[in-house]
Amino acid sequence: MGRLSEKVPKPLMKIRNQTILEMKIRKYIEQGFNNFVLCIGYKGDLIRKLISDKDFSNKIIFSEAGSRAGILKRIISAKDLFSDYVLITYGDTYSNIDLSDLAASHCKNNNEATIVVAPIKSPFGLVEYDNNYRVTYFKEKPVLNYYIGYAAINKNALEATPNKIINKPDGEGLIEFYNMIMLAKKLGVYYHDGLQVTFNTEDELTLAKERIINFYTSS
C-alpha cells in the first residue's frame, strides 16, 4: 500500500467514513456473531484504539503474536481463545459471505479445514507444454477458482501442526498447513460467487471502494 500503510494498517483503510475492519465486524454482528478475536501486529495499537471507541468493543478479544509473525502463527497464537473450530477472515478482504452457512458446511462435511474460493476469469489463454516444447494443454480465458482469505479451521488440526510450518513467514505457513490437510483428504471447499474484494495496492483500494459502494447502492 506504499505511503498509505505507513500511517495505518490495511484494515483501517476507509470506505467513505468507515474502516474496512469496522464494516466487517458490523456485518458479522448482523449475521448473529458476537465473539471476535483480532490477531494484530503491525500498528496494532491503532486497531486497539479504534475498537475501544466502538459500541461493539465488549465483543472483541485481541491476540498479538508480534509484527513479524506469519498468518498461521497468528492464528495458532490465538487458539486458546476459541473452542472446537474458528472462522478466519483476512483484514484486507471484504465479502458478503454468509459465515453461518460456511460454518454449517464445514461441520457437515467433517473436514479439518474448509477454505472459501471464488471464481475469476483469466484474461489470458493458458498454455502448458512438455519437455519437447510441445503444447499439452491450451485453454482460452478459463474461469479459475482462487482462495479469498476466508476459512473454517479445526483447533485440533492447528495443534497438530509442526513448528517448522508454524514459523514460516507471511502466508507460507498457512498454505503449507492447507497442503498438509489436503494430503490427509480433510481440506474442504466452500464456493462463494457474491461480493468479495481485496486490496494490496492503492489502485486496488480505489477499485475496492467502487465495488463495495456500487454493490450496496444497487442492492
Question: What are the SSEs and their pairings?
Answer:
Elements: H1 4-7, E1 14-15, E2 18-19, H2 20-30, E3 36-40, H3 44-52, E4 60-64, H4 71-77, E5 85-89, E6 93-95, H5 99-108, E7 113-121, E8 125-129, E9 135-140, E10 143-154, H6 155-159, H7 163-166, H8 172-183, E11 187-191, E12 196-198, H9 202-218
Parallel strand pairs: 3-4, 7-11
Antiparallel strand pairs: 1-2, 5-10, 6-12, 7-10, 8-9
Please give a structural write-up.
The structure is a single chain. This protein has helices at 4-7, 20-30, 44-52, 71-77, 99-108, 155-159, 163-166, 172-183, 202-218; strands at 14-15, 18-19, 36-40, 60-64, 85-89, 93-95, 113-121, 125-129, 135-140, 143-154, 187-191, 196-198. By secondary structure, it is an alpha+beta fold. It has one domain (4-218): Spore Coat Polysaccharide Biosynthesis Protein SpsA, Chain A. It has a four-stranded mixed beta sheet. α3 links the parallel β3 (36-40) and β4. 25% of the residues are buried.
Tell how many strands the DSSP assignment holds: 12
Fraction in helix: 25-40%
The secondary structure category is alpha+beta
The CATH superfamily name is Spore Coat Polysaccharide Biosynthesis Protein SpsA, Chain A
